[in-house]
Amino acid sequence: MTLAQAKRGQRLLIAAIPNPTIRAQAIRFGIAEGAEVECFEKLPAGPVVVGRGKQEIAIGRRLAENIEVQLAG
After folding, report:
1. How far is CA 51 from the centre of its chain?
2. Which of these CATH numbers, 3.40.1620.10, 3.40.190.10, 2.60.40.420, 2.30.30.90, describes 3-71?
3. Which of 33, 46, 70, 72 is deepest in the core (most CB within 10 A)?
């Protein structure tokens, strides 16, 4: 599943960011493959707000569609 498909409150593990350009953008925000994040908010047709530690980041829907995640267990 992609980050754009995540639901509010889910804890997620970033599984893959296949596109190198998008991977570089995500790394600048502190999100890399293997990182665990929580979906704080998902705005209709808008960004997905994720948090890691004390940091919250709004990720645009197009970017979120290119980040593969899985539920953190």
Report:
1. 9
2. 2.30.30.90
3. 33
Return the domain boundaries, the chain: 3-71
Q: What is the pLDDT of residues 18-27, one digit of tens each?
A: 999 989 988 8
Q: What is the DSSP secondary-structure string of 4-71?
A: GG--TT-EEEEEE--SHHHHHHHHHTT--TT-EEEEEEE-TTS-EEEEETTEEEEE-HHHHTT-EEEE
Q: Which two tokens stand for residue 48?
A: 């997905």
- Cβ neighbours, 10 Å, residue 17: 22
User: Could you give the strand order of the β-sheet that contains 68-71, starting from the edge strand earlier in sequence?
Assistant: 55-59, 48-52, 36-42, 11-16, 68-71
Residues in the chain: 73
